[in-house]
């Protein structure tokens, strides 16, 4: 019965988007959207109470996105529905009330994922409506594509490229639709709502040089929510980012990244604080191998008022799974901050029979605090991805977080996660 309801509800959302395909005029272009993902995620987490090592999480979920884009000239209308079904719900989705299991943040949901009207020319793109927004490497604003239910924004976005080598990207958002889906906020999960209202400004100005791209950015967040844990995310962040690459020899390339930002409280935030963000990374590509080393700081203000124990730099709208380890132990920055030292190695095999490419990667993280000299723990990540054909891809992934000493923040526990996933895109 639940499967029938899920399929019927998803069809009710996406069918209107497909209608224009039946009656498209010669000068109207219709592009269908069909994406599916089947995933297994297992979590073995030792404590803290009430979690125990014999109550592991096992999540088998299926995600479907479908819809379409109708365009004529410079104008385009896109409508996309999204639904996630739990085939095995032996896990805490964050909003299903199964608090004795570790969290796998893929709740069941059916929703209108995107509905946007777009005007696009070579120098100017304007997007109005519920939309996906990914800025730079998604460290501050992203769509959280790793989760089954992605994050979208009700916003107006203006991208201007009319000046050579310069891009101006401005967004005003009145709401973020979170990964928690239609049941967000239920079962006592008030800090995991389906929607976060506010007045948010995202501004990027990027200039391309022969050595890389220099970006100045400002992210001003005003969350209009009663829950203190959400209102603490009201902040203003200003910074610079420089990223580029240069060839060193045939089949040898050096890539580099450096960024700095300063964050402080804003608007209705109950916390008075200021904190720094900094990152630096070097990557060396030699034929099929890639070696990477880097450092990231999310600083802490030990003198912050309005919260005990200090308050640290937060990135509430980021694609957080990309950063600070795949075990997701640092989705909320601990009050004492984070220093993440990491090293990675990857190998790409262009062909495996008729399939390919195959990419194998390994990452090591060492996590410590910004204040009080705490060594939180170490994490080991490994992943293999394979493009099976034009439409299908597969992934196997592993994360192992090993805590050092006593627990230093909420959720600080030895954690192992494993994933197996198949993706289809039309």
UniProtKB/TrEMBL annotation:
Start and end residues of each Alginate export domain: 37-161
Pfam families linked to this entry: Alginate_exp
Gene3D superfamilies tied to this protein: Porin (2.40.160.10)
Keyword Signal: yes
InterPro entries for this protein: Alginate_export_dom (IPR025388), Porin_dom_sf (IPR023614)
Signal peptide limits: 1-25
Keyword annotations: Signal
Record bears the keyword NADP: no
The protein, known as: Alginate export family protein
Organism: Sphingobium cyanobacteriorum
């Amino acid at each position: 019965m639940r499967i029938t309801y899920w399929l019927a509800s998803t069809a009710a959302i996406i069918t209107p988007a497909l209608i224009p395909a039946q009656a498209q005029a010669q000068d109207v272009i219709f592009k269908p959207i069909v994406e599916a993902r089947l995933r297994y995620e297992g979590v073995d987490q030792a404590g803290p109470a009430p979690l125990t090592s014999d109550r592991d999480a096992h999540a088998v979920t299926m995600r479907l996105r479908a819809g379409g884009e109708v365009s004529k000239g410079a104008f385009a209308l896109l409508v996309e529905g999204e639904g996630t079904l739990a085939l095995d719900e032996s896990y805490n989705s964050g909003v299903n009330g199964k608090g004795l299991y570790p969290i796998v943040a893929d709740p069941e949901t059916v929703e209108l994922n995107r509905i946007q009207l777009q005007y696009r020319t070579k120098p100017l793109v304007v997007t109005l409506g519920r939309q996906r927004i990914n800025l730079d490497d998604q460290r501050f604003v992203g769509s959280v594509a790793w989760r089954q239910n992605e994050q979208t924004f009700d916003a107006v976005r203006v991208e201007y490229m009319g000046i050579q080598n310069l891009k101006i990207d401005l967004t005003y958002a009145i709401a973020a639709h979170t990964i928690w889906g239609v049941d967000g906020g239920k079962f006592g999960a008030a800090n995991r709502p389906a929607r976060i209202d506010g007045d948010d400004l995202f501004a990027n100005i990027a200039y391309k040089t022969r050595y890389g791209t220099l970006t100045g950015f400002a992210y001003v967040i005003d969350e209009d929510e009663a829950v203190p844990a959400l209102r603490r995310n009201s902040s203003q962040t200003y910074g610079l980012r420089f990223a580029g690459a240069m060839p060193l020899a045939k089949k040898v390339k050096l890539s580099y990244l450096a960024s700095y930002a300063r964050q402080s409280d804003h608007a209705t935030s109950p916390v008075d604080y200021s904190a720094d963000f900094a990152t630096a990374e070097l990557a060396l590509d030699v034929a099929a191998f890639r070696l990477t080393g880097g450092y990231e700081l999310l600083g802490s203000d030990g003198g912050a008022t309005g919260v005990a124990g200090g308050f640290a730099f937060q990135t509430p709208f980021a694609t957080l799974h990309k950063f600070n380890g795949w075990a997701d132990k640092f989705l909320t920055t601990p009050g004492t901050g984070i220093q993440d030292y990491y090293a990675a190695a990857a190998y790409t095999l262009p062909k495996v029979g008729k399939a390919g490419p195959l990419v194998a990667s390994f990452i090591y993280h060492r996590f410590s605090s910004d204040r009080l000299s705490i060594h939180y723990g170490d994490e080991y990540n490994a992943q293999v991805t394979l493009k099976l054909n034009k439409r299908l891809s597969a992934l196997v992934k592993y994360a192992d977080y090993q805590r050092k000493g006593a627990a230093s923040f909420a959720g600080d526990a030895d954690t192992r996660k494993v994933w197996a996933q198949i993706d289809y895109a039309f």
